[in-house]
Automatic annotation (TrEMBL):
GO terms for cellular component: cytoplasm. Residues 5-168 form the N-acetyltransferase domain. It comes from Amycolatopsis xylanica. It comes from the Bacteria. The keyword Transferase applies. This is Protein N-acetyltransferase, RimJ/RimL family. One of its GO terms (molecular function) is protein N-terminal-serine acetyltransferase activity.
């Protein structure tokens, strides 16, 4: 039986994987490749706050001694006093299609509800990203609707689906 999927803080030794997942077209994959960026950006951000702050954060997805990718979240205002978290993830190509992303998203939702007062966690994915749609739905998210022309990738605007998970959706 394989080790359980876990989330953990980012280590300096994770930097090569983070660079591969964010600054390499093959590592990022077609839905996450957004163009080249400063190759020292992730390390500088990690040195600043360990990639964990009050407005956003990032945790590594692990299984035993293997790091598979990362989950991230950032704060979105939803009203005068309220906010929600918008989450995302990137899994290395060798780890895709094994349910690791689904479990990582379940764990992240539980983590955010356990450690913040937020009532809503949301995620967006391109309408063509069938694998991520399945992962979000298996993780318990509800598809709310389509956002036309929501994101720009590979020279054109893309439509996205918005998904949500409310604190009251927890089992």
């Amino acid at each position: 039986m394989p080790d359980p999927v876990t989330l953990r803080p980012t280590r300096e030794s994770d930097m090569p994987l983070l660079e591969r997942l964010t600054n390499d077209p093959d590592g990022a994959g077609s839905f996450q490749w957004l163009g080249w960026h400063d190759p020292g950006l992730m390390l500088r951000r990690w040195k600043e706050n360990g990639l964990l702050g009050p407005e956003h954060g990032q945790l590594m997805i692990g299984q035993g001694d293997t790091a598979h990718g990362f989950v991230s979240w950032h704060k979105i205002p939803t009203g005068h006093w309220a906010y929600c978290w918008n989450i995302g993830l990137i899994i290395q190509p060798e780890s895709r299609g094994q349910g690791i992303g689904t479990e990582a998203q379940r764990l992240l939702v539980r983590y955010l509800f356990a450690h913040t007062l937020v009532h809503r966690v949301e995620a967006d994915t391109e309408t063509e990203n069938i694998a991520e749609q399945r992962a979000l739905e298996k993780a318990g998210f509800t598809r709310e609707g389509i956002q036309r022309g929501w994101d720009f990738r590979d020279g054109q605007y893309r439509d996205s689906y918005r998904y949500s998970f409310l604190r009251s959706d927890l089992p």
